[in-house]
Amino acid sequence: SQPVDVRDDVVPIRKAPGKREWLPLAEAPAPPTDGPSGPLDIAPTMPEHDDLLPPVRPRRRGRTEVPQAPPEDDHWADAPWSYAPPQEQPWTDEPWLPTSPPPAPAEPGEPEPAEDWPDRWLKGGPRRPAPPPPPAERPRVDPWPSEPRPWEPWSEEPVARSTPAPNPPRAPVPPPAPVTIRPLEPWPIEEDRAAGAPAAGAPEATPVAPPAPSRPRRRELPARRRRQRPEPPRPTRERRERERAPHRARPAWAERVAVAHRSAVVLRRLSIRGLIARKVRLALTALAVVLGVCFVSGTYVLTDTLKSSFDRVFAQTAVGVDAVVRTRSPFNSNNVSRVRLPAGVLTLARETPGVGGAEGVIQGPAEFVARDGKRAIDTGGAPSIGISWDVKDHVSPVRVAAGRAPLQGGEVAMDVATARREGFRVGDTVRVLLSGPAQQQRLVGTFCFASQCDLGGAAFAAFDVRTAQHVFNSMNAYDFIDVKAKPGVPPAQMIQSLRDALPGYDVTDAATVARETGQQVHDAFGFLNDALLGFASIGVFVGAFIIFNTFTILVSQRTRELGLLRALGARSGQVMRSVIGEAAAVGVLASIVGLLLGIGLAEVLLRVVERLGLHIPPGNTVLLQRTIIAAFVVGISVTVASAVYPALRAARVPPVAAINDYGPQASAPLLRRAITGSVILIAGLVVLVVGLLRHYTQLISRMEIVGIGAIITFVGVAVLSPVFARPLSRMLGWPILRAIGVTGTLARGNAMRNPRRTAATASALTIGLSLVCLVAIFAASAKASLHNALDTGVRADYILSSQQFAGFSPVAAQRVRALPAVRNVVSLRFDDAQIGNNTETVTGVDPQGLTNEINLGMVSGSAQIGSEDVLVHDTEASGYHVSIGSTLMIWFPRTGPQPLRVAGIYRNNHFTGGIPVNFLITRPAFETNFGTNQQDTLVYVGAKPGERSAAQAQIQRVLNDFPNVTSKTPAGFQRQQEQTINLFLSVLIALLLLSEVIAILGIVNTLALSVFERTHELGMLRAVGMTRRQMRRMVRAESVIIAVVGGLLGIAVGIFWGWAMTRALRDQGITHFSLPTVQLIVFLIASAVAGVIAAVLPAWRAGRLDVLQAIATTE
Asked: How many CA atoms lie within 13 A of 669 on its CB side?
């Protein structure tokens, strides 16, 4: 048989629902003695065991513990208690509760009880008379052992015992006194226990802790034969919590944490289900974030890969070299040229203790001519450098790959990558451009720098030491000295010995010199990185507007849903966190996808860069931890920040919105928005004016201020756009109304009715079109400024320039000057110097014939200058506070600080078509302060009157020996510069294409959401007779109105931005502001076409709406 719980010192009592408690016998109240149904004799019959009760069978499923009467002829008949039948058992509907404990389960083979009659009474069934009492003469059986077992203290777990075997018969016990049963009423156990008084006649008992109560099942009486009696009032009972031990008590903060955890789980499930339910509507929003993150991560991967590839190249230039000896730089600039070392320094370096070898290196410009002989080889902007190769005392990392090293004049070695790219082999005759016309040399070998043979497009030519000294004009001098330590001597110790032996020179470890050399490449790639990140930021900015618009519309559509959540008990903070959680989830998914696509975009951009002519050393794609962090920060922060305001709106939805048509169609007045937008717009204009009017010595500072002002201005326009949307929609909808009739009226009315929706839909197109207009205006202004600068500043007949924006030999200008048809020749060369705390570009010029070939636009002073004079541009003169006769201190790399007298101030500084000319010194002063190994950048040639054609032919014959130099008229030079501008602007437009794609996605997304929001309205229109064709026409017309509104605002903002940029760049040559009127009109028409294209799918969906379902739609 199953074990049963034996509790001999407690009785069950009824507690709160779902709980059960055991009460010690000492505290149990006396049962009632009479009742409406007659007396019932129940009395103890075993005084020596009156502290024990038979085992009680517990009830299950939360029922109230009710003792049950034993059936006839069972073994409990001999227990120390018995039943005395009442004198009369009439039928009654009142439930009653016996105080006797229930019998144990029947033993196998014994008959089961006829019926669980007390339980049936409690369930409301008919009452039956009590069973007859057992015979008086029947022998009794003691169910307990003869020696009672002492009980142990009560514990949490009840004692489980099997049914004991019957004991031998005992002496008969006197019959119990009769007891009357009362109807079921709550007994005042709690009051007695609270008063501390035990039940009358109850023995003293040690209180024990009750077990965990169970929840009773509710029992109802049947409706039939139910007597209407007033129930007695029940005393209120406070719920007693189970007491915990002090060390197990749960603190208050733990309860709060538990509640917060449950709330977080609910919110997380709610956000996930919301994303799944609106996955289609959020797809385009996520795509906008994906494109922005893709551009950001792709930019970082591209620039990091380029830097890593070139870092490996420069690191190989330090292999085998421990230290480099150079002259000290007079100021901190990596681009400045250093003074050469005397030959005696090489001797001192070799005699220094710890030095194992030293090699003097000479370097200078050297270009190879292509196999066709008409041009110099294209390096893609990389330098073409000639170096010396000392075979006897070789220390540098140059290693022979094929052939041998050059040993005498007329021999040259070429790097492996250039030889492969141009198709040269060892033994071929090549032409090399050095300090004069092209010279024929025999290719005797190819080489690498240590293990690096691909040098990233750079072309290297190696000569023997004597030839290098001659062609680079460096007799008994070296540019630097490579030093290596003896075996077993630490490089640091050797470097310190060199510093002690050569106190006036710069001794640096080779790795540091390699990093300094690579820093120039890093700076170039840093500019590329900043430019690409700028365009990526534009795309992210456009995506932020799309996210803002999407979540604003979604919150408006979910007003009833959010109100239902509030009605069910959700707090405003929980609703807000739910919306922000959805935005964060979109940001995380978009960041992951965007990062993966960014890696692929970097690979594509690398191939594009190689196609454009930039040779990249082979290497692996670099993905840094910073790139991953930036991708997730951009994706998540932009998405969450853009959803904050819609989340605040969602938090303000009241619970009444669940049962009332609340909020989505209501619009607050635009006065507050007009005031806020005006304040932001005025603030942006103030920042712009400050950036334009204040003088800055650095261009970056001015452009930063102007850029900040432009962004603030656009934000102000975006805030004010709903204010402009209604009048613009009225104006632009009039011709559409006249063209298509009633559908046009509805389209214009819809666009005017909800200006916020109109502005939100048009904002993406506004920012995209404003950027396109900015680029177009900048291009037109740059071309106009270039045309004006060359027309007003250049008086020469021909301009000589290099093919690759590099210098060329001064011998070309000398030979052209000797031609009979040439009147004047003015050459320009550029290098960096330090003025004050700024690095400025100083220009060397031939003073003879300067004003005849170049119009400087002198403001004051004279253009005739000497070796100790300088000409200053008027803007720089104001910035450095100098005037005619003042002294300007300039730090040169060769001679250090030199005071120069300001001889003149001029106005025109953009006659070069690119590089601004702000400081002019004579050519002899330039060679004295910068060195004689300099090259010309531009040469202006003036022909004698009437001999322009002859001069052109003579110049072309001279330039046949200089394949890297071209001759053009000012008009041809202008077209060449315009091609460069067009190429640059094409790249800008291609980069802006990303923001345009995002803007178009924004139009499609917001239009689709708008149609979804107006499903009920569109269904009503269909119900009153509008056809599908008219429905599609109305949606397209509304889309055109919205798109043209966005186009007009975008063109207006773009024109303002273009004007601000041209004003900010006036010192860099953009002196004229030009509006491409035809292009702007085309842009406006294109915006209308874009609106039609963007409305194709929304219009198709609107036309296919089911009328009944649309009318039944409430959201």
From this structure: 3
Q: How many residues does the chain have?
A: 1115
Q: What is the pLDDT of residues 662-677, one digit of tens each?
A: 544 445 567 888 888 8
Q: How far apart are CA 1054 and CA 769, in angstroms?
A: 7
CA distance linking residue 768 with residue 770, whole number of Å: 5
The separation between CA 236 and the C-alpha centre of its own chain, rounded to angstroms, equals 60
Residue 389 buriedness (CB in 10 A; 0-12 / 13-18 / 19+): buried
| Residues 6 or more apart whose Cβ sits within 8 Å of residue 974 | 786, 787, 790, 913
Q: What is the pLDDT of residues 1081-1105, one digit of tens each?
A: 888 888 888 888 877 877 887 777 7
Q: Tell me the helix, strand and coil percentages in the chain, rounded to 5.
A: 50, 15, 35
- Tokens at 952, concatenated: 């052109």
Distances (CA, A) of 975 to 785, 972, 980: 13, 5, 9
The CA distance from 317 to 515, in Å, is 10
Beta bridge pairs of residue 96: 183
Closest CA to 869 of 925, 824, 918: 925
CA pair distance 303, 312, nearest whole angstrom? 14
How crowded is residue 677: how many other Cβ atoms within 10 Å of its Cβ? 21
Q: Tell me the C-alpha distance between 408 and 441, whole Å.
A: 11
In the three-class reduction of DSSP (H, G, I as helix; E, B as strand; rest coil), residue 959 is classed as helix
As given in the structure block, the two tokens for residue 307 are 């830097």
- Three-state secondary structure call for residue 730: helix
Confidence of residue 168 (pLDDT cuts 50, 70, 90): low
φ, ψ (nearest 5 deg) of residue 663: 85, -50
* Full DSSP string of 388-402: E--STT--SSEEEEE
Rounded Cα distance between 187 and 607, Å, is 92
Tell me whether residue 299 is exposed, middle or buried, using C-beta atoms within 10 angstroms of its C-beta: 0 to 12, 13 to 18, 19 or more. buried
Whole-angstrom distance, CA of residue 942 vs CA of residue 960: 20
584 Cβ contact list (under 8 Å, min separation 6):
636, 639, 640
**CA-derived radius of gyration, the chain:** 49
Q: What is the mean pLDDT of residues 311-336?
A: 78
- Evaluate whether 480 touches 340 at the Cβ level (below 8 Å): no
| HEC sequence for 522-536 | HHHHHHHHHHHHHHH
> Which token pair is 314?
């420069």
- Predicted TM-score of the model (pTM): 0.67
Instruction: Give residue limits of the domains in the chain.
Output: 1-218, 261-321+519-666, 322-518, 704-792+982-1115, 798-968
Long-range CB contacts (within 8 A, 24+) of 1060-1064:
1060/688, 1060/692, 1060/706, 1060/709, 1060/710, 1061/706, 1061/774, 1061/777, 1061/778, 1062/777, 1062/778, 1062/781, 1063/692, 1064/691, 1064/692, 1064/702, 1064/703, 1064/706
Best CA proximity match to 556, nearest among 477, 649, 465, 486: 649
Instruction: Copy the structure tokens of residue 187.
Output: 């007994």
Q: Which neighbouring-strand residues pair with 183?
A: 96
How many CA atoms, within 13 angstroms, populate the side-chain half-sphere of residue 474? Answer: 29
Q: What is the mean pLDDT of residues 252-277?
A: 75
Q: How far apart are CA 1012 and CA 332, in angstroms?
A: 63
Cβ-contact 418, 368 below 8 angstroms: yes
At residue 961, the 3 state secondary structure works out as coil
Statement: residue 250 has pLDDT above 60: no
CA separation, residue 297 to residues 624, 629, 635, 661, 916 (Å): 10, 10, 11, 45, 35
Look at residues 518, 611, 579, 661 and name the one whose alpha carbon lies nearest to residue 990.
611
Residue from 395, 505, 400, 382 nearest 445 by CA:
400
| Sign of the dihedral through C-alpha 751, 753, 759, 760 | negative
pLDDT tens digits, one per residue of 178-203: 555 554 444 444 444 444 444 444 44
By DSSP bridging, strand 477-478 and strand 429-433 are unpaired
Token look-up 């409690």 returns: 122
Instruction: For residue 88, count other CB atoms closer than 10 A to its CB.
Output: 9
In eight-state DSSP terms, residue 144 is S
